[in-house]
Specification:
It holds the Pfam family PNPOx_N. The chain is an alpha+beta fold. The chain has a single domain (about 10-150), classed as Pnp Oxidase, Chain A (Roll), CATH 2.30.110.10. Helix content is about 20%, strand content about 40%. The chain contains three helices and eight strands, in the order αβββαββαβββ. The chain has helices at about 10-25, 60-70, 100-110; strands at about 25-35, 40-50, 55-60, 70-75, 80-95, 120-135, 145, 150. The longest helix has 14 residues, at about 10-25. The relative contact order is 0.22. The mean pLDDT is about 95.
Length: about 150
């Protein structure tokens, strides 16, 4: 992936770069909120399946509690220059009910299968409704590259 510095990318290039990053990166910041406890943010490993982000967390974690109470989440790739922000609703799958294809792909990417662990885990799937991507000030305008689940440009 090439960094273009302060050169403004068109929407199609931003989409391509974003999809490339989603396919190869490992970590995503997950922001959740609970009606009584407020906001919570944590980094998790993630898998992009071409349509959705899959993450996994302990079934009793603050993240798991929050997405059950309030499924709206925000996700951010960990780069403050090459920003990618996703927003959507979380769908929860207990580790014994997760679709096999998603769990196998997650295990293959990370060399870790939560389904084989002693404790209970929760897989969280987020289909983005909004995606914003920008590199620096020249790209602030037009940074929304997905709106209402549809890619722009």
């Amino acid at each position: 992936m090439q960094t273009t510095g302060n050169v403004r990318r068109e929407a199609a290039e931003r989409k391509r770069d974003t999809l490339e990053r989603l396919a190869v990166e490992r970590d995503v910041w997950v922001s959740t909120g609970h009606p009584e406890r407020g906001p919570h943010q944590v980094p998790l490993w993630f898998l992009w399946d071409g349509r959705a982000v899959w993450m996994c967390t302990g079934a009793t974690s603050a993240t798991a509690r929050n997405v059950r109470a309030e499924p709206r989440v925000r996700l951010a790739l960990p780069d403050t220059f090459d920003v990618v922000l996703l927003q959507g609703e979380a769908e929860c799958f207990p580790d014994r009910e997760v679709p096999g294809e998603a769990a196998e792909a997650f295990a293959a990417k990370f060399g870790w299968d939560p389904r084989a662990e002693e404790g209970a885990f929760l897989y969280v799937r987020v289909v983005p409704r909004t995606v914003r991507a920008w590199r620096g000030e020249p790209e602030l305008r037009g940074r929304v590259i997905m709106r209402d689940g549809e890619w722009q440009g």
